[in-house]
Amino acid sequence: MTQFGNVTADQMLAGSSVLSRSAEEFENDQSVEAMWTMKAIEHAEVYFNILCSVDPKLLRLTPHDDQIYKTFRETFPNLKVDKIIEDDFKSEEEKQKWRPFCEQFKGTVEDYNFGTLLRADCEGEYSEKNSILTSRIQFYAIELARNREGLNDGIRSKYKRTNHNI
User: Which residues of 76-89 are buried (b: 16+ CB within 10 A; e: fewer)?
Assistant: First the structure.
């Protein structure tokens, strides 16, 4: 059985319904943080395994991919998405640009603000050094750009094994 800190995977699955409750109900609850972390890791593993199996240009991440990508490139036309530098991505100035972008998808994109892991360098797999915590909509925007702009094309040939574990 997988264990994360003092919380087992079974306990996290049993408590996953807690994650749908309002964040204001919790004050630095470590078990909830562990559940969020496990959910983000699970999402990353699934996504990377899909990237290793499917032509990224054909991959649909949401029913709103076209709008997300169009809005992203209108808002951030020159943002290089191959290698994300976390400090540049999360500076106060950048947060001011990202906030309105993200909020326009509230109510449209499910779980738009969930914590999600993003690969900093699109040529690498998820690892402690190559992962940045972002919102789900930022993940979608960056990964849609990487997929549509051919930056994830080499993943299938580079990582042929299955069941990637972070």
Answer: beebebeebeeeeb
